[in-house]
Amino acid sequence: MDIRILAIAAVLPLAACSQERPPVDSTPPPPAEMTCKADAAQSYVGQKATPDIGGAILKAAGARTLRWGPPRSAMTMDYRQDRVNVLYDDAYTITQVSCG
C-alpha cells in the first residue's frame, strides 16, 4: 500500500473532528403575518357553525387559517399562531373558539 494513501487515511478522521460547527440560532422565528386573537371572536360561541360564521370568525380573530373541531374528533396538538380553532357539538353549536 502506498504510504501517501495510508497517511491520508490516518488524517481524514482527525480533519472531520476539527471542523467548526455553525452556531445554533437561538433567535425566535419572526412573527406570522397574521396572528390569531381568539378574544375578538368569543361572541360567536353559542351560534351555529356555518361556512359564513367560519369566515366571520376567521376575520374577527385576524387569523390566516380556520380549523373546525367536530365533536369526538382527534386534533393534532401542534400550535400555529396564525390559526383559529372552532369547536362545535352535535347540534353544530359552537362551543369554543381558541387559537393554535
Written account of the structure:
By secondary structure, the chain is α+β, with helices and mostly antiparallel strands. The protein has a domain at 38-99: Trypsin Inhibitor V, Chain A (2-Layer Sandwich), CATH 3.30.10. The chain contains two helices and three strands. The chain has helices at 3-18, 51-61; strands at 65-69, 83-88, 94-99. The chain has a three-stranded mixed β-sheet with strand order 1-2-3, covered by helices on one side.
* CATH domain topology of one domain: Trypsin Inhibitor V, Chain A
Q: Strands across the major sheet, in which order?
A: 1-2-3
Mean pLDDT: 83
| The CATH fourth-level homologous superfamily of one domain | Trypsin Inhibitor V, subunit A
* Cα-atom radius of gyration: 26 Å
- Bulk shape: elongated
State the total count of DSSP E strands.
3
Order of helices and strands: HHEEE
Which structural class should the secondary elements be placed in? alpha+beta
Beta fraction of the residues? 15-25%
How many angstroms does the end-to-end distance come to?
A: 63 Å
CATH class of one domain: Alpha Beta
Provide the helix percentage: 25-40%
CATH architecture of one domain: 2-Layer Sandwich
By DSSP (H or I, 4+ residues per run), the number of helices equals: 2
Low-confidence stretches: none
Summarize the structure.
With about 100 residues, the protein is of the alpha+beta class. The chain has helices at about 5-20, 50-60, and strands spanning about 65-70, 85-90, 95-100.
Task: List strands and helices in order, with pairings.
Elements: H1 3-18, H2 51-61, E1 65-69, E2 83-88, E3 94-99
